[in-house]
């Protein structure tokens, strides 16, 4: 097994658009061929679009683009711009002379940083898809990860910056990669040794505090819907929709390895799983590998999004 670039998996391109004053943005994965997709939603407050398409009860269809954005439910407006771009390029589900782009989307809540009145919209969704021609999987404070943060039990004042991260590997002919936006309520840990790498800080912001212990001691009610870790695992493996849903469900273990607490009523944790190739493989092996790359992508999202204390504090809403 060796590491590869996320974009080497094939079958899609990555684009970004963002507003650094408002601290929000959109990341678009634009698919250039047939694919099979599944989903796993474990958080209690997801902001999502077209989720039912991934159900085994739905008619399986290739997705045209997947958007990961900020803006909470307001950010779902970005999908309209994505659809316009894709329609212009004749990409989507064809019905005679009509093309309907299939664009699922998930959003993080980033309204507590930057301007809460500026959210991903039509223009930002369009620009993110247009940027996919550059096919740059850039980690950190970019695209949908621009306004991501972690450790928010006591609000933004004791939180830390996070962002978007990527990781991909190749095992024989099988390629597996992950993209994730880490905007969790909880603390973030290195899955390899359990060391905390980001999350809740003490009141003076000089040391880490344990969010789990604070939760027990304070008996504080979690604010619903203000956090979310969203992402996708992409593979060149050949799997059915049911198998992709199972792979997405297995990948959820990465969240448990790396984030604590996770999947709360205040999180909208969602994982997509998309197959873009024809490499034959065992879905249990693929799910285990997907969990590994998502764990690594979570670390990348935190390490790549570092921001100076003064700049971060100037951007958070009191």
UniProtKB/TrEMBL annotation:
Pfam families: Peptidase_S58 (PF03576). GO terms for molecular function: aminopeptidase activity. Belongs to the peptidase S58 family. This is P1 family peptidase. It comes from Treponema peruense.
